[in-house]
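Interim report to the steering committee. The following record documents the input for Argininosuccinate synthase (401 residues).
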Amino acid sequence: MGRAEKVVLAYSGGVDTTVCIPYLMHEWGVKEVITLAADLGQGEALEPIRQKALTAGARESLVVNGSEDFIANYAFPAIQANALYETRYPLSTALARPLIAKLLVEAAEAHGADAVAHGCTGKGNDQVRFDVSIAALNPNLKVLAPAREWGMSREATITYGERFGLEFPVKKSSPYSIDQNLLGRSIEAGPLENPWHEPTEEVFAMTQGLASTPDDPDYVEIGFTQGIPTHLNGTAMAPVPLIEQLNQLAGRHGIGRIDMIENRLVGIKSREIYEAPALMVLIAAHRDLESLTLTADVTHYKRGIEETYSQLVYNGLWYSPLKAALDAFVQQTQQQVSGRVRVKLFKGNAIIVGRQSEQALYSEELATYSEDDQFDHRAAEGFIYVWGLPTRVWSERLRRG
């Protein structure tokens, strides 16, 4: 069944995406498959993955380093928006999908491909994120999803690949499905599908269990410039090293573990385990700095924007008109969000213990109860009368019946 002449395939080196190569050619009549592996700091050696794609029949195997773009243009804007899906998940995996979609579209346009493909199944969120993002970036490209249609079990998929000489070395099988990048890890499946089952330490790699964390706290000072993390402990740092160093500092203290029942876009609930040490610390520190530098009405209104923003990213609408409009609002709010936040890292907790900014709206002279108090207490009586007047009128009418 011919669907495209030349396809760029998002490639991870796993069973599904590897089998996609011969499947696209032999079942769907694709003449040329080009694979693209995005290096987003997942910690894997990508040269063997590149060679694996060629062995599987790919005409060309691309490896693109997108780490800096990922942090600067996807993670940092999400931090400015304090993006937490369902108030808990910092979108560490979801944020990678629009970038990978962009890289796929760019590769397809550069190589004259008429389609892109991915190995997502029909049950998860990533299929939506890829399909919708690709359509937004280039609606003329076809999107192929073989694993969504072939209906093969894992065993049948491996058997199919072996028909074309592919080898899948037998290893001690892990029951977990894991996705990793610079921002964190997501772990699901296996025993974790029982929401009563406590995750064992084997599922974690970026964070220490509390029993193994230091008995003394560490302090880290995070500097922000217009809402963007730019300094650690007084030293200016580029985006990727800043995330890497903070991952190590926070992970050592067991910070950044999330265990939640998540509402997927496709209508089912799933139990998800996440590790996102740096991202969780940065969102907490950024939100605290906003409390020092934003007016009350902007702070309160922005909270609703943040919830909508998080839902858009989670639901695959990074490249959408509403997301662009919210970006403009968030960027406007960040003009004065510069300063330093001091965080105490200890036993799984990132505790904000200090904040400082030249743009601070906090006035010690107004807040103090000492003799330096400059607040006019006499003004409060008139303010309370006017503020409470609607309630007073309502109560009087109610009493009269």
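The CA atoms of residues 97 and 129 lie 6 Å apart. The committee is asked to note this result when reviewing the revised timeline.
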